[in-house]
Each structure stands twice: as structure tokens, then as C-alpha cells.
Design a protein that fits this description.
It is built from eight helices and 15 strands. By secondary structure, it is of the alpha+beta class. The strands form four sheets. Strands 5, 6, 7, 8, 9, 10, 11, 12 and 15 form a nine-stranded antiparallel beta sheet that branches. The chain has a two-stranded antiparallel ribbon with strand order 1-2. About 25% of the residues are buried. Its main location: secreted. InterPro entries: FIB_ANG-like, Fibrinogen-like_C, Fibrinogen_a/b/g_C_1, Fibrinogen_a/b/g_C_dom, Fibrinogen_CS. Keywords: Coiled coil, Disulfide bond, Glycoprotein, Secreted.
Length: about 450
């Protein structure tokens, strides 16, 4: 069935170009002017399977409100009216592509918006991290400042401690000594000691000690202190009856019942015993560590009654032995502090009394060759079997060859290992009245 051309054109225009701005409500007249013969077409004529070439189009608005659309056909073997539906497919394709591009642009805008939002979030996080870094930097700076302040405070405190430490120590010693004096006065109210002097066995930083002005009922040795109720070891003041002058001594209140007045101690080599006559006469060292009480004091103590002597020995393996002498005393300086020691017993063989009894005391500066070779003060014979004031050798064993010595000079007790070249680790000499008897504990 054939349709009028005008009808076909109207349908085509309405379907294919819905977006045209022409006024289709009134009258739509479209004329197709062909340069050659114009032929109509039906729904099934002239439709090829491929895309039809549409040629060129032009339009013109007429005064009467109509629109004239002119199509110029391309040069073809058989000219026919174009298939408007087919031609508009291409336009629709590009319109569809355009819509897709618009949608893609919209999608890209949304993506860009999300990226911008994420960028703002990252910038915010970066700002927070910068602020945290600044805060931590400030905190670290504060800590560093406090650390330097503490370092300066510590250095200042250490300096003050070095300055005031000895003063505090001296004050503590003074308080301790005053406490002991108070205790002695309480237990011996009749013992009165005045006037101040310095003890030769205590260093210059220690408290000054009293010299006698009026003495009555004062302890004459550590045994009398023990009987007055002092049963703890330590440094105490006594007044020997023969010396009539106060004397600081170390009292051993533990060994074999206590009551011992210590006259010599070696324990770590901290004190040099290679001394001159006057030093051995007056005493030297530290009563709390290594010391020699002094030949004058040993004479005064040992001649105010009948005294016994105990010598404690320890080697570098921790083995302990002792020698006990029932009778011990020394003569005065005019007789070179000649030794009188007898009545041996103990857990070690005797190396002292049998060889050194009745020998005079000598020191390296007195011209005695044995004292010079042995580097100490002692009751030397030819030269010794016991030399408790000799050189302190760490480890014990030594040799004359390796030390370029003229003879042995260590802290020797010959019968300990039957050699002069083994030096003991610790030794001590202490005396107490022969009649001393410890009191049972209450």
C-alpha cells in the first residue's frame, strides 16, 4: 500500500526529530525537491541492509510558519528518497554517544569531587600530624631542658657532697663517739676525762679526743669495758693505769668470749707498714681497718697486769688458724721494747715465741739489716720465722728473684706452709688479762 509522500515525511519528522524547535502543533509541511524524478517509497521499498548515505540537508523557515527541509541526494546509480529513519540512526548514535560522554563527564566530576574530599581529608590529617610533631618536638625540647637541668643539679649536688660529705661523716663520727662517751659515763660515772688532744691513730677529720686531767674509775683495757657491760666490738676510749692518758683502742668482744684489746691488724694491704721508729712508737693506721697500736701503748697495756696474747691467721684459701701465748709483755723504749712471750698453744705450729722471744724491736731506719731486708718493724732475730708487719702480697705467693729482693719480706708465718715465701691474707694480734673470764649472757 502506498502512502502519500507528505504523510510519510510528517511521520518521519515527528519520530526522528523530536527535539526540533519547529511548531508541529499547527501544520507541518515538508517538501522534498529532487533534481531528477521524484519517486515515492513504501515501507519495504529501497531499504538496504547497510547504512544508507543521506546526502546533505538544509532547512528554511517560511513566512507562513512552515519549515522547508531540502535534501540533496548523493550521486548514486539509482537515486531514491532517503530513508529518514535510517539517517536519523546515525544522529541518534551520536546523540547516544554524547549522552554517554555526558554521563562519563558527570561520573568524572563525582570522582573528582570524591578525590577532592579525600584530598581535603589527607590535608587535614597532615595538618594534625604536623601539629602532633610540633607538640612532640616541644615536649622533647622540654624533656631535654629538664634533663640538662637535672644534670646540672646532679653535678652541683655531687660537688656539694664532695665538700660536705666529709663534714657530715665527721659529724656522724662525733655523734657516735659522744654516744659512746655518754654510755661510758653512764656506766662509769666516776671516770672524768677533760682537756682535748688528738689521737695519733685517727685521721685529721675525726673527732678530737680528751686527754686526762682527772681520772677516776676509768676502764684500763677492753676487758674492763667488758666487765662494765660493753659487749659489742668497736672503738672505745680507755685509760691505761701506767700511761695515765686516754687511748683509743679497738675492742674485740666476740672472739673466745671477748675482752680483747687489738694491738695490730692486717687485712687488705691498704696501710704501708714499712715505717720508721717513731711511727711504730706512737702508732699508725686506722683502728677500723689496718693499724699498729704503738709500742708505747703496747708497753703500757701489757705491763699493767698479767696479759696473754692471741694471734689470728688466715690464708688466701680462707683457712683460719690461731696461736695463743699465755704470757705476753714488752719493755719500754729505753730497752727497745724487748719482747717477752711464752706459753704457746693453738691450732698452728709456733713460729713466734720460740724464735723471737727476748728480741728487741727494730725498724728499717735503726740500722738493723733484717728490718731493712724485711721492710717492716718487728722483733727480729736472724731474721725471722714470723714477720706479721711485712709487705702485703696479694695472692700470697712471691719470690725474691721476681721481686729483686735480698730476702723474704712478706706477712710470713713460716710453719703455715714451711716457707718464707708465702704471705698471709689476714692477721691480727690482741691481748687481754690472763685471768679474764667471760660472763654468761643474762
Amino acid at each position: 500500500m502506498r502512502l502519500p509522500l507528505a504523510h510519510v515525511v510528517v511521520v518521519v519528522v515527528v519520530v526522528a526529530w523530536p527535539a526540533l524547535w519547529l511548531s508541529w502543533a499547527t501544520t507541518a509541511v515538508v517538501s522534498l525537491l529532487l533534481s531528477d524524478n521524484l519517486t515515492g517509497f513504501s515501507g519495504d521499498e529501497g531499504i538496504s541492509s547497510g547504512l544508507m548515505q543521506c546526502g546533505e540537508y538544509s532547512n528554511e523557515a517560511l513566512p507562513n510558519g512552515q519549515c522547508r527541509l531540502t535534501a540533496t541526494l548523493p550521486q548514486m546509480a539509482e537515486q531514491r528518497c532517503p530513508d529518514m529513519f535510517r539517517c536519523t540512526d546515525e544522529v541518534s548514535y551520536w546523540l547516544h554517544e554524547n549522552e554517554e560522554r555526558k554521563q562519563q563527564v558527570q561520573d568524572l566530576k563525582e570522582i573528582i569531587s570524591e578525590l577532592l574530599e579525600e584530598l581535603r581529608s589527607h590535608r587535614h590529617r597532615i595538618k594534625l600530624l604536623e601539629m602532633q610533631h610540633q607538640a612532640r618536638t616541644g615536649w622533647n625540647s622540654t624533656l631535654e631542658h629538664r634533663f640538662h637541668f637535672l644534670e646540672e643539679s646532679y653535678a652541683e649536688s655531687a660537688s656539694l657532697l664532695r665538700v660536705h660529705g666529709p663534714l657530715i661523716y665527721n659529724m656522724q663520727r662525733q655523734v657516735s663517739n659522744l654516744s659512746m662517751v655518754v654510755e661510758r659515763v653512764r656506766r662509769n660515772p666516776g671516770c672524768m676525762i677533760n682537756i682535748v688532744r688528738t689521737s695519733p691513730l685517727l685521721n685529721a677529720n675525726e673527732v678530737l679526743h680528751p686527754e686526762v686531767q682527772h681520772v677516776r674509775n676509768c676502764p684500763i683495757d677492753c676487758a674492763s669495758l667488758y666487765y662494765s657491760g660493753v659487749h659489742r666490738s668497736g672503738v672505745f676510749t680507755i685509760v691505761p693505769s701506767r700511761g695515765a692518758a686516754p687511748l683509743e683502742v679497738y675492742c674485740n668482744m666476740e672472739t673466745e668470749g671477748g675482752g680483747w684489746t687489738v694491738i695490730q691488724r692486717r687485712q687488705d694491704g691498704a696501710v704501708n707498714f714499712n715505717r720508721k721508729w717513731n711511727e711504730y712508737k706512737n702508732g699508725f693506721g686506722d683502728l677500723h681497718a689496718e693499724f699498729w697500736l704503738g709500742n708505747d701503748h703496747i708497753h703500757d697495756l701489757s705491763n699493767q697486769g698479767a696479759y696473754s696474747l692471741r694471734i689470728d691467721l688466715e690464708d688466701w684459701n680462707g683457712k683460719h688458724k690461731h696461736a695463743y701465748y699465755d704470757s705476753f709483755k714488752t719493755e719500754d723504749e729505753d730497752h727497745q721494747y724487748r719482747l717477752h712471750v711464752t706459753g704457746f698453744s693453738g691450732t698452728v705450729e709456733d713460729s713466734f715465741a720460740w724464735y723471737h722471744d727476748k728480741q728487741s724491736f727494730s725498724t728499717p731506719d735503726t740500722g738493723n739489716i733484717c728490718a731493712e731486708i724485711s721492710h717492716g718493724g718487728w722483733w727480729y732475730n736472724q731474721c725471722f720465722f714470723a714477720n706479721l708487719n711485712g709487705v702485703y702480697y696479694n695472692g700470697g705467693r712471691y719470690s725474691a728473684k721476681s721481686k729483686n729482693l735480698l730476702g723474704p719480706d712478706g706477712i710470713v708465718w713460716y710453719t703455715w706452709k714451711d716457707t718464707d715465701y708465702y704471705s698471709l691474707k689476714k692477721v691480727s694480734m690482741m691481748i687481754r688479762p690472763r685471768t679474764f673470764r667471760p660472763r654468761p649472757s643474762p
